[in-house]
Amino acid sequence: MNLNLNDVTVNFSHLNTKSILSDWAWLLGKSKLPILLCSSGDAFVQDKNSLEIFFLDVWSGKLKKVANSTDELMTQLKGGERANEYLSIQWVGDLLKSGLNLGNGQIFSLIKPSVLGGNFELNNVEITDIEVHYSVNGQIHEQVKDLPAGAKIDSIKIKPPKSKRKWYQF
User: Fold this and answer.
1) How many CB atoms lie within 10 A of CB 110?
2) CA angle, corner 145, sides to 141 and 149, nearest 5?
């Protein structure tokens, strides 16, 4: 299966870019906005001041500088190892082959996030609203970020996404 950039990214032009990643503010700060959302659930953000590009690995809860400009990022994403690493091309291809197809405003998400012990297996993947995906995962990572590896987690509290839509409209 040959995939193009539209297969491994999602359109979010209908959403408020300032609120999509609001539950990641603890990691991103206030100067970074999303510029590219991956179908696999990760995101690229750009610093409004320096214009540097960062990769938000939603599954590990880490932020990594990957480029100094959008042109440099697009060069990296044109193919090869970096493109597969950031865009999870093989994994997304497998999900699409299995019959999972994203609709407008949707993203692939893990039912049980990897930070809570979930695996990247078909039976642990669901199609989720973009805002819900980033909100839930951002809140979980914020709550567990200071825990030692292997710590027992008794509970996680999730608040509805900070959106103008009512929670039941997701």
Assistant:
1) 22
2) 110
DSSP assignment, residue 67? E
In contact, 44 and 134? CB cutoff 8 Å: no
Question: What pLDDT digit, counting tens, does each position of 63-96 carry?
Answer: 999 999 999 999 999 877 888 889 999 999 999 9
Question: Domain spans of the chain?
Answer: 5-169
Structure tokens at 131: 């805002």
Q: How many CB atoms lie within 10 A of CB 25?
A: 13
- Residues 14-57 have pLDDT tens digits of 999 889 999 999 999 999 999 999 999 999 999 999 999 999 99
- Quick one: pLDDT band at residue 161, thresholds 50, 70, 90? low
Q: Which residues contact 45 (CB under 8 A, 6 or more apart)?
A: 21, 28, 32, 33, 34, 35, 53, 54, 56, 63
